[in-house]
């Protein structure tokens, strides 16, 4: 993690363990940041990232015992603490001297309050601690989020919502209304069939073409579209959740229409981002009106996403596109069924099912 403020004399030592549950985010002073090329890490920090492609797989998060032991060694007093660090990690330099060059920590993770403790900064790829909280002044790399502002014009937005409102909206959970374009799926039994699915709507064809022009969405072939309608009068919201990965692939793409909102990202893991317990860390991703957001990698598989009632101030319409998982793609176990569903979806002749 990085200290968000004036540069400190010495950067906090990075955690030696790669935290798969938090995508290896280290806590370090922000003033020491020199580059965000490698997932927001400073250029002087060791490259401990896993090989490319691993983050697309649903992970099995390991224990964070190594990180806790690291903190205990740092906490050991005087020469004994330094000896413990060097004995357990021969290549690690001794800890900074207390009170002189060791950075000040505002509060331990046990004092963090639930809520939007961090805010995602797209330009830097960092989650930055909110002011007036225990996390103020700290930041950590938050990979797996692509935010494209003004993806549509106001005229395109109005025409898109008008087209959606011509079809009926069905009541859904938590005060939402929905329109589904996709196969009939039983996720619990892992069964699906085309059912009444006859394709994605015609008004989505140009949107999909425009999305695929972005490098991160290269080759994106949506097989399902879900339109959601939120109103504050209905108390609309969606609880924290992870999207299924048996049927749906790595990239989740959502178009935010009519009003701004906040996508709240939270982690169930008890593993730590060196100083902060993941279960008490929430990252707020602010979604402007007419913006497109893509979740992939760590943000897709390790962090739950939600929209809270307090962040629905006016009517909001969201269009979410999902692609097929590798199991239903070329060379996968259910390749033929996947091809059948894609042929239907990309006909762009659909009505809500």
Automatic annotation (TrEMBL):
Its cofactor is Fe(2+). Residues 75-90 have a biased composition (Low complexity). GO terms for molecular function: actin binding; broad specificity oxidative DNA demethylase activity. One of its GO terms (cellular component) is midbody. SUPFAM superfamilies: Clavaminate synthase-like. InterPro entries: AlkB-like_sf, ALKBH4. GO terms for biological process: actomyosin structure organization; cleavage furrow ingression; demethylation; positive regulation of gene expression, epigenetic. Residues 1-107 are annotated as: Disordered. This is AlkB homolog 4, lysine demethylase. It comes from Crocodylus porosus (Saltwater crocodile). The lineage of its organism: Eukaryota, Metazoa, Chordata, Craniata, Vertebrata. The gene is ALKBH4.
